[in-house]
Design goal:
This protein has helices spanning 2-21, 38-42, 50-68, 73-92, 95-99, 106-109, 111-134, 140-164. By secondary structure, it is mostly helical. It has one domain (39-164). Helix 7 (111-134) packs antiparallel against helix 8. The chain is globular and about 45 Å long.
């Protein structure tokens, strides 16, 4: 229990530091803004209580807002993503996955399952984030293109990261 908690904290700090110190300082274009910090929320254990996932999502978003000078944008997007994550995983995971405290990853569920899961959650996150950021539908198609391109780039980066650090599932 304590080792799982410390592992969770270490993963949180590592992912957020990479986002803040590396990814946020790379200027790709106005249309491509990868947000890899959502990997922390995506890889939380399936069996984690929904209220804990939402609280951790809010705290992750609040951390990003604090260091990015975006008052509440990341918090709203990650909170909404964390809330919908529970419904998606109830639909997409078996009882065995939930009972075994599985953490979603390519090594556990396979490339297709994980990329589909990650793509849906990333699109949800980016849609809320970018439309709240623009706070109007005045530039609907430009923002929509930004959502699609940023989501695609985020999914590619996270998939490559998962493949690079591929771990075979633990055997019982």
């Amino acid at each position: 229990m304590i080792i799982e908690f410390l592992s969770l904290i270490l993963r949180f700090f590592l992912i957020v530091l990479i986002q803040l110190l590396v990814i946020n300082n790379i200027e790709l274009s106005t249309y491509v803004n990868p947000y890899i910090y959502i990997l922390f929320i995506l890889t939380l254990p399936v069996s984690m209580k929904p209220w804990k996932v939402v609280i951790l999502s809010f705290l992750t978003g609040m951390t990003m807002d604090t260091f990015s000078s975006t008052p509440g944008l990341h918090m709203a997007a990650t909170g909404f993503m964390g809330y919908l994550r529970n419904f998606y995983l109830q639909f997409a995971c078996s009882k065995d996955d939930i009972e075994s405290r599985m953490e979603p990853s390519i090594s556990r569920k396979g490339l297709v399952w994980f990329v589909l899961y990650m793509s849906i959650m990333t699109l949800i996150h980016h849609t809320v984030l970018f439309y709240l950021e623009i706070y109007s539908f005045r530039e609907f198609f430009r923002t929509f293109f930004r959502i699609l391109s940023s989501s695609l780039f985020t999914v590619i980066i996270l998939s490559l990261g998962q493949l690079l650090f591929y771990r075979s599932p633990k055997t019982r």
